[in-house]
Backbone:
């Protein structure tokens, strides 16, 4: 359960709307069920009071919306950012993707967001309602009645291995500031690295074969803000609308991951939205782990204007052949 | 669709010996776009070139593929031939079937098969070639030299000698730089002023040279041949064209307690001053930080005594904008601060000094009028310890020293030691060193003379600690050859401080988009082959701004930089390489990745208006490549995630079509 | 430095200028008796230069030198370490009370059986 | 006994200033290397987009090698330093996906190293031949 | 009515798969998915597959022709791969209804021969739903999830699977496994249906109705200001269209293989910015227009041309999968709720 309440956020939004600091609010809107929250723009206090929500299902990262929203909006936009969202926010600023002056950031604490799929798995299909309480979730189901779940067990993957509760950008902070966390997010990557190449190949073949090229991972990704994606551009030589075979599946995901190297903040949105549950974060995290390993720790978005590893170098960088061995966990 | 002609060369038996040229020409005939295919003994001969010219005209060819030797050999030849026949020279591609085929493969079938594939790849590329025209840009025939030390002076004189205008911008009130502060020069021991000041006078009298002293470059725009620089002339409160340099004001000024920076603070000057007797321009300058008139409005002595009426308390900083074709950076060096070297007690004892301070102590125009006297009590020192490599070759803690060798210290320390023993044979002189490095003409002989003829004690090992005790300095050091620790009671300790680039270099590099290394020395375009050019076209490097160097090297480099500038300014127009990057503005995100990796600073960002689907206008930040500056490496094309950046002549689709042709 | 006179004497007698030494170590690198020595040839030169002569005179190393002159032959600076060693040996002999011989007196003490080489050596040693 | 003896296909990207000249020198000195190696000239190794490498595998290449100036000797001062970072990360990723690591390589070959060029190609072809046909990054449509 | 015990189901699968290709839903990391049956596979318990059953007749990628190029000669090659019958086992009523939607498009003149070919060869074993979930609203479109159509209808109880053939094709397959089946009683099935119907009443979307939509409503909804807020957070990804059993838009592309060309068609999504891009550009330039297109097509344009049949079967896949939880139910409620 989130420590900060919907009412607190509405109160803050009201204040900023009324004193003229902002003219609109980017927030979460309640849906049909307890869990289907949609990002939305609120222009008035009435709209806020009617539909605004903040609960354990507000996973969406608003940073990317700012690219388009700041162009459209006349005045300033109030945006509520969770700690991990602020990294994406900074990264977009580093890449000059929107005007900082048009945004008012309120940093809000996050206790981790919940994965509906995980609830379905744990409590059974047919969720009538989900109630978030201090000691876990109470899920009312059609077939299993009320089921109590520990929040920790149904968190989104990215929240289970949360890397930071610290906001790296805000104009104002609600609640307490957290810390950067020593996270276990690379464990799964390491497990894969320890497999034999054949096992790894089989793993990725199996995972990527489910891809339906819906582009949700790309379209939600705060690093993928290209005016035109190479995969949509017939002149790029790699354009395609559907993966015709396993090569094209790999091609899309390798190139996409490569294009966000050093720019991916590991916000985990790609894996959250994948309708096929492909663990796409494992590709991005491999790059992040290698970067940390080869060139020293680098967290994209930790500060505005930092130079990403691929647009930087030192004269004594690791050679590619050694990198492959070192990336595999061997001593190079 | 192109109309391509294929010309397969035999190169006598060089190619035809291992490649069935007939079969290659035949096989390539059916490739898409090919309308003509032939083979000939020597394509590069006049007769061969005539065949090509005739075919271009007869078959209305729009593209040419020559299967021959390496493009590094005859690409230019065949491009000229094509141009002579009216075809754009960049519509010619070479398939290298000699060096990379016939010469490395032994049997005919293998060679022939590979030659056909290489030919297909070249054809695939030509199919996507577009005619390229090299751009031209005019050249402003004036050079800017930033820094008025010996490097800047020499460069300016050499450029002016060739008949081009030069402006020198010097931030101090006079040109001359560090060399003006030096007493004698190694290895000949002639007096620095005697060889420098005539050059300074030459500069002042040269009609082609303008000196902006007490001035700084605040902004540089443009590119090779077309720079615009903004120069800030700081207010000196003295009318430069009126002041006669008589010096009366500098004697009458009541503010006497201003540390004299020319003598490194070892004596005082007045608030109005001329740095030294031979200053150029010989004009007084009022130091606004110390002038009572400027601070409180009460004084005006200098104005009263100035017979020329040159004093003007109302002067303001003046900004001048000027166009240049080339820029030479000659910002020089400074000794590093000794503040972090507590072990040498620099801040505790006045008798621990740096080598540059020692220069001033030895100099006849210095604070002691050339007599070697201790700064603390004015007594003659009898035991002097020189410590080399203070802060040089120090990689332990980058805050403290510099990782590199400062290069000049070994020689000037030998010079100091020798001069001291020469003038004052009653002194004991010890030099503590890690290595003695004297790779220069007559340098090692010079150092050996200090040891053998002047009896300077060179001890291998470093001084560990200097402890002021009474009026003496207890020096504890190691003697590595004797394998023991030694203690010396010294009267004076001289530290050979490492040198670092002037602090103004970093912001200047940003302005010029010239690259720097981690030590803030300017990077050269190529360490061996283009040592005086910066990777940024039109920006040249002179002197210690590029790395530690002594006077002879600096002068040599200054001349080299000048000759490069002259070579540039002698052209009326610059022809640009047409194979440059270009950005598709509609696809550009404005993320700066390309600008970050560009080694030449060829990419800038501009705000462009775009029409939106809803018919509104949107202003977006997009990359723009300066074709005059881009060298065509293509690094930017790969970091561009949207693929907005592409390289003409080596475009993404061209290279991919080559890949396709090779792999099919 | 201590023993300035002794130092001067050794240098004068040997005709060697130890200041010419660049401390390259070639003399020690070439010395066939190196392993037997406590002080090695380059140290000899340095110790003489710095006047640190007492330990040298007391060291057995002094007599390990075979006077093969390899060091003299190979020294890039012409320092001639062997001559310096020889000179120090002489200082030891002098201190033991055996002093100069006059060239004139030599014929008298020559023994018929005495090898030619010994005579030459003696001449070299005792006339300086 | 090996029944199928299909020769591998190798695409070599060579920078114009060092490695392409090194390949020319190998030719001048008549140093043999397998004809399976086909060279594509690029201005600098940093011109090579990962997309080109994948494209080569898609189209049927069995190995891809990049050759550039030695670090510090880049004609464009820093291009190969960027190449080194990109390829270190890309190759490590390909390895992570289970693609055989011997199918890709970066080698620094100067204009004077004709012998190194030939030796590198011989070695690379041998390694790729041992791996057999590229199955893990193939596009069946491109097979005949 | 025939039946077999659930424990005997694998024998049925084995028998069918001996004769022709059989596809059953199985569980994967990414949820349930139809896969070609191989001995030992277990049928998924999931209510529905992540991707719909439309893949069988209208796959995401289908080669339509190939051109072999040699020198300057071109040869056209037929690329049709489906030549034998196959069984889809366990499609739900909603997906089966969706075939009707697709048929209206692909089998009306001019007939899409690729679709028709697959359709002819496909034999559908449709399974009644016993545990509908909160995202289900097939009811709204008149679908009875306990009465699935198809060549064979099936009902599952605690321990048994009931079969009823609706077509000749279905009869044939049931005959194939006749020895493994016994006669089943109608009333067991009826009571099972009744149980499910009770659940249906409790579903949160049970009252949803498309009555306010249908042919002739274009003018009413086209310029509705609500489209703006509904579409503003849409990412423009293709998730909803690709999991949808009724979306049938595709693009035709050529792939140059180096020695020829493969012409294929692949699903396209009206949510994509380059959807129906033509020489002059895009007809729908903003995401609002594209978003509106999808829902107007499903709720207004399609019914207008197809006798009131809506282009949605209420399977609920888009409700579960949309990255930002925007979906047809919210659109229907927002637009319909106003009038």
Residues:
């Amino acid at each position: 359960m989130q420590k900060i309440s919907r009412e607190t956020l509405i109160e803050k939004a009201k204040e900023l709307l009324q004193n003229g600091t902002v003219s609109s609010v980017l927030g979460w809107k309640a849906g049909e069920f307890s869990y289907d929250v949609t990002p939305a723009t609120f222009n008035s206090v009435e709209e806020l009071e009617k539909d605004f929500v903040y609960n354990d299902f507000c996973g969406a990262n608003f940073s990317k919306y700012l690219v388009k929203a700041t162009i459209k909006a006349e005045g300033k936009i109030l945006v509520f950012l969770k700690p991990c969202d602020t990294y994406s926010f900074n990264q977009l600023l580093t890449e000059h993707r929107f005007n900082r002056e048009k945004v008012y950031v309120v940093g809000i604490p996050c206790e981790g967001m919940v994965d509906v799929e995980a609830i379905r798995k744990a409590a059974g299909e047919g969720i009538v309602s989900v109630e978030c309480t201090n000691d876990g979730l109470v899920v009312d189901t059609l077939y299993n009645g009320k089921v109590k779940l520990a929040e920790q067990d149904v968190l989104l993957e990215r929240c289970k291995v949360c890397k930071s509760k610290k906001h790296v950008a805000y104009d104002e902070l609600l609640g307490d500031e957290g810390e950067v966390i020593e996270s276990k997010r690379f464990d799964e990557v390491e497990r894969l690295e320890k497999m034999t190449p054949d096992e790894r190949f089989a793993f990725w073949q199996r995972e990527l074969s489910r891809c339906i090229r819906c582009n949700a991972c790309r379209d939600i990704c705060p690093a993928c803000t290209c005016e035109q994606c190479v995969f949509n551009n017939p002149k790029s030589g790699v354009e395609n609308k559907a993966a015709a075979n396993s090569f094209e599946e790999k091609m899309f995901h390798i190139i996409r991951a490569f294009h966000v190297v050093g720019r991916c903040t590991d916000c985990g949105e790609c894996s959250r939205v994948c309708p096929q549950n492909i663990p796409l974060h494992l590709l991005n995290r491999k790059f992040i782990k290698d970067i940390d390993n080869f060139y020293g720790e680098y967290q994209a978005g930790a500060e505005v204007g930092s130079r990403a590893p691929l647009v930087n170098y030192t004269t004594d960088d690791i050679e590619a052949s050694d990198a492959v061995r070192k990336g595999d966990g061997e001593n190079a | 669709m192109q109309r391509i002609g294929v010309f397969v060369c035999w190169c006598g038996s060089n190619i035809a010996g291992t490649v069935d040229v007939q079969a290659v020409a035949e096989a390539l005939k059916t490739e898409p776009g090919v309308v003509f295919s032939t083979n000939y003994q020597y394509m590069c001969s006049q007769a061969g070139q005539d065949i090509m010219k005739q075919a271009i005209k007869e078959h209305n060819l729009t593209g040419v593929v020559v299967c021959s030797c390496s493009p590094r050999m005859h690409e230019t030849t065949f491009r000229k031939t094509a141009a002579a026949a009216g075809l754009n020279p960049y519509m010619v591609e070479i398939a290298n079937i000699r060096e990379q085929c016939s010469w490395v493969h032994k049997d005919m079938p293998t060679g022939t098969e590979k030659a056909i594939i290489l030919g297909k790849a070249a054809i695939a590329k030509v199919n996507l070639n577009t005619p390229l025209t090299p751009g031209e840009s005019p050249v402003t025939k004036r050079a800017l030299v930033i820094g008025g030390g010996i490097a800047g002076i020499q460069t300016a004189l050499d450029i002016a000698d060739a008949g081009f205008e030069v402006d020198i911008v010097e931030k101090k009130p006079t040109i001359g730089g560090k060399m003006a502060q030096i007493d004698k020069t190694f290895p000949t021991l002639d007096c620095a002023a005697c060889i420098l000041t005539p050059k300074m006078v030459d500069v002042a009298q040269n009609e082609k040279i303008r000196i902006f002293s007490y001035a700084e470059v605040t902004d540089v725009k443009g590119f090779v041949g077309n720079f615009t620089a903004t120069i800030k002339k700081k207010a000196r409160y003295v009318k430069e064209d009126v002041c006669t340099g008589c010096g009366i004001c500098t004697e009458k000024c009541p503010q006497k307690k201003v540390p004299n920076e020319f003598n490194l603070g070892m004596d005082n000057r007045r608030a109005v001053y001329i740095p030294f007797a031979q200053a150029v321009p010989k004009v007084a300058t009022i130091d606004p930080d110390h002038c009572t008139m400027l601070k409180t409005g009460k004084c005006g002595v200098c104005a009263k005594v100035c017979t020329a009426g040159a004093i003007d308390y109302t002067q303001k900083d003046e900004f001048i904008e000027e166009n240049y074709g080339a820029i030479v950076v000659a910002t020089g060096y400074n000794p590093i601060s000794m503040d972090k070297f507590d072990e040498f007690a620099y801040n505790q004892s006045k008798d621990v000094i740096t080598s540059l301070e020692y220069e001033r102590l030895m100099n006849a125009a210095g604070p002691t009028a050339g007599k070697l006297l201790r700064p603390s009590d004015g007594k003659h020192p009898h035991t002097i310890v020189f410590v080399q490599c203070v802060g040089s070759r120090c990689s332990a803690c980058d805050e403290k020293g510099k990782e590199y060798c400062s290069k000049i210290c070994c020689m000037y320390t030998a010079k100091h030691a020798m001069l001291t023993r020469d003038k004052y044979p009653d002194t004991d002189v010890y030099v503590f060193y890690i290595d003695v490095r004297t790779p220069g003409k007559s340098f090692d002989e010079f150092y050996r003379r200090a040891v053998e003829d002047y009896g300077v004690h060179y001890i291998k090992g470093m001084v560990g600690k200097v402890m002021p005790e009474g009026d003496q300095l207890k020096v504890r050091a190691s003697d590595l050859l004797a394998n023991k620790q030694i203690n010396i009671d010294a009267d004076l300790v001289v530290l050979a401080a490492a040198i670092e680039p002037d602090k103004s270099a970093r912001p200047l590099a940003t302005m010029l988009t010239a690259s720097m290394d981690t030590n803030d020395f300017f990077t050269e375009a190529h360490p061996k082959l283009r040592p005086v050019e910066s990777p940024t076209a039109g920006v040249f490097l002179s002197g210690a701004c590029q790395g530690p160097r002594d006077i002879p090297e600096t002068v040599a480099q200054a001349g080299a930089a000048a000759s490069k500038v002259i070579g540039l300014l002698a052209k009326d127009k610059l022809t640009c390489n047409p194979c440059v990057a270009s950005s598709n503005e509609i696809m550009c995100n404005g993320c700066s990745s390309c600008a970050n990796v560009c080694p030449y600073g060829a990419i800038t960002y501009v705000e462009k208006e775009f029409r939106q689907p809803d018919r509104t206008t949107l202003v977006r930040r997009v990359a723009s490549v300066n074709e005059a500056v881009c060298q065509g490496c293509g690094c930017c094309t790969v970091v561009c995630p949207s693929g907005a950046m592409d390289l003409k002549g080596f475009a993404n689709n061209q290279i991919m079509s080559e890949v396709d042709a090779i792999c099919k | 430095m201590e023993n300035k006179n002794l130092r001067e004497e050794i240098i004068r007698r040997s005709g060697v200028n130890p200041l010419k030494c660049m401390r390259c170590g070639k003399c020690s690198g070439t010395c066939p008796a190196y392993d037997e020595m406590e002080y090695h040839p380059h140290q000899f030169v340095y110790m003489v230069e710095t006047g640190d002569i007492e330990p040298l005179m007391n060291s057995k190393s002094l007599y390990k030198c075979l006077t093969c002159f390899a060091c003299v032959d190979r020294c890039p600076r012409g320092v001639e370490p062997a001559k310096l060693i020889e000179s120090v040996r002489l200082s030891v002999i002098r201190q033991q009370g055996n002093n100069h011989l006059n060239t004139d007196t030599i014929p008298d003490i020559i023994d018929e059986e005495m090898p030619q080489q010994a005579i030459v050596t003696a001449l070299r040693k005792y006339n300086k | 006994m090996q029944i199928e003896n299909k020769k591998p296909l190798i695409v070599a990207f060579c920078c114009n200033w060092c490695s392409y000249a090194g390949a020319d020198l190998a030719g001048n000195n008549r140093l043999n290397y397998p004809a399976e190696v086909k060279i594509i000239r690029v201005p600098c190794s940093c011109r090579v987009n990962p997309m080109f490498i994948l494209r080569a595998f898609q189209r049927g290449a069995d190995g891809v090698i990049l050759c550039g100036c030695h670090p510090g000797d880049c004609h464009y001062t820093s291009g190969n330093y960027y190449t080194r970072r990109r390829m270190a990360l890309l190759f490590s990723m390909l390895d992570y996906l289970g693609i055989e690591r011997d199918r890709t390589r970066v080698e620094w070959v100067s204009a004077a190293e004709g012998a190194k060029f030939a030796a590198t190609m011989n070695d690379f072809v041998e390694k790729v031949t041992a791996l057999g046909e590229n199955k893990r990054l193939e596009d069946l449509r491109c097979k005949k | 009515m025939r039946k077999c015990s659930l424990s005997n189901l694998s024998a049925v699968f084995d028998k069918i798969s001996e004769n022709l290709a059989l596809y059953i839903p199985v569980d994967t990391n990414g949820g349930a998915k139809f896969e070609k049956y191989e001995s030992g596979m277990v049928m998924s318990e999931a209510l529905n597959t992540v991707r719909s059953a439309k893949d069988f007749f209208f796959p995401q990628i289908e080669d339509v022709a190939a051109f072999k190029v040699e020198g300057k000669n071109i040869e056209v090659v037929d690329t049709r791969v489906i030549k034998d019958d196959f069984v889809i086992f366990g499609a739900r009523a909603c997906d089966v209804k969706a075939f009707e939607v697709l048929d209206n498009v692909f089998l009306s003149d001019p007939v899409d021969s690729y679709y028709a070919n697959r359709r002819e060869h496909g034999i559908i074993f449709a399974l009644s739903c016993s545990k509908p979930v909160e995202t289900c609203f097939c009811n709204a479109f008149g679908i009875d999830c306990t009465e699935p159509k198809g060549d064979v209808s099936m009902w599952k109880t605690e321990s048994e699977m009931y079969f009823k053939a609706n077509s000749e094709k279905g009869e044939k397959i049931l005959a194939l496994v006749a020895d493994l089946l016994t006669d089943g009683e109608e009333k067991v099935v009826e009571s099972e249906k009744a149980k499910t119907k009770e659940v249906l009443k409790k579903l949160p979307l049970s009252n949803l109705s498309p009555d306010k939509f249908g042919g002739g409503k274009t003018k009413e909804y086209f310029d509705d200001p609500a489209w703006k807020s509904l579409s503003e957070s849409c990412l423009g990804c293709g998730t909803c269209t690709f999991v949808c059993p009724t979306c049938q838009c595709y693009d035709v592309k050529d792939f140059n293989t180096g020695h020829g060309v493969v012409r294929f068609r692949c699903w396209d999504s009206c949510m994509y910015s380059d959807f129906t891009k033509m020489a002059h550009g895009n007809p729908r330039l903003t995401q609002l227009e594209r978003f509106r297109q999808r829902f107007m097509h499903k709720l207004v344009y399609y019914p207008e041309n197809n006798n009131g049949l809506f282009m949605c079967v209420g399977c609920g896949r888009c409700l579960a999968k949309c990255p930002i939880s925007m979906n047809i139910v919210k659109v229907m409620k927002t637009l319909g709720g106003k009038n």
In short: Chain C has a mean pLDDT of 84. Chain C has two domains: 4-97, 101-128.
